[in-house]
Structures are given as structure tokens and as C-alpha cells.
Sequence to fold (214 residues):
Amino acid sequence: MQKEEFVKEALDRLIERYGRELHTELVHRNLTELFVAVFLSPQCTDKQVNNVTRGLFKRFRSFDDYAGADTRMLMRYLSGLNYYKTKARNLKKSARMVLELYDGKVPRSLEKLMEFPGVGRKVGNVILNEGFAIDEGIAVDTHCATVARRLRLSRHKDPHKIEADLLRKVPREQWGLVSNLFIALGRDTCRARVKHCERCVLSDICPSSTMPNK
Ligand code: SF4
Fold:
């Protein structure tokens, strides 16, 4: 099967299995909460972030609240997260930037989002996709990276290089969906430690289905 054909077939099957209505599991009720939850997510599980934001979102409701927060108090709220001290400092700085540079509104471009301290391509891509349905890139997390490598869509480990490979191979109109589909597959059958190819919808076309776990 040609690469293009393979990608189309794989995505069609994943859409059939997991649907198109896939969203982040980071709990949020509005754009400010989405920004904060995604901002806090690097190096943490969604569950860790949700545990922290449950209390955080009761106390902090706007970018004004974060910008004016006492940094030590913010650190206490975030202490269940990896790198919470840096994240607290960066969140406060970012909230100020949203207020001063963007009139209190989250900007709608990857380039602008990546000017915030602590925001990389993955965080920016998720905010754009979830918040505005804009797809400038593909958010590559650990699930997405594992699946992309096992499907031989990339041989890299670096998320930026994997994203570059996916951007070349996946049709533009599916950039937003592919990340969530790969995450769904990664959580379901294509787990990093133990893969379950025997019940995977891609088992007959996947080049890794008969390979040992890696
Ligand atoms: S067949 Fe196995 S290796 Fe391939 S995508 Fe499915 S679970 Fe992953």
C-alpha cells in the first residue's frame, strides 16, 4: 500500500472506531480555563492537571486573578504538578501578557502563543485546536508519538520532528483530528508499555503489529 493510501485507510478506520468528536480530557468551562489547563499540562498527566485545576478554578477565574496573584500562593495551588514553581511564575507572567498585549483575549495564532513563557508547539496547537478549531500544526504528545512511530509515519523521537513528518504525510484538513485519534488509539490498544495488536483496528495493515513491543 502506498503511504498516502495507508494514511487514508488508517485514519478512516480510526474515525470509524473512535469518531470525530474527540476532545482533550483536560476539564475546562471556558477559554481562560482551557488556556490555563493546557498551559499546566507539560510533563503531567491530564488526571494530575484536573486534580489541581479543580481547586484552582474555584479561586482564580480570570486572567486578572492570575496576573495579580501572589506567586507563593499560586505555587501552593499548583504543587501537585511537576515543575510547579516554574509553571506558577510563567502563568502569572503569561496572564499579564494576555492583558497587556492582547486586551485580555487569548491570541489565535501559534506564533503569538509561543511567545508566552513555557508555551511550546504542543501546548499552542492544543489551545488553537480546542479553543478555536484552528489547526496550524499537530499536537504531538507521548501517545501520538508512539503511534506515529509504530505506524512508521516517523522514525524520530523528538516531538517536533515527528510533527514535521506528520504534517507532510497527513492531509491538512485532518491535522486537528489526527492527534486526538492517535491519543485515543494510544490509550486504547497502542499503549507504550504493552500494545494490544490483537484487538486493534489497524492490526492487518500496521507494520508493527507482529513486532515485539517497543
Ligand atoms: S496494530 Fe499494534 S502497534 Fe499497530 S497501531 Fe495497533 S496496537 Fe499499535
Remarks:
- Residues 135 and 172 are 8 Å apart (CA to CA).
- The two ends are 23 Å apart (CA to CA).
- The first helix runs from residue 3 to 18.
- Residues 3-22+138-199 form a domain with the Endonuclease Iii, domain 2 fold (CATH 1.10.1670.10).
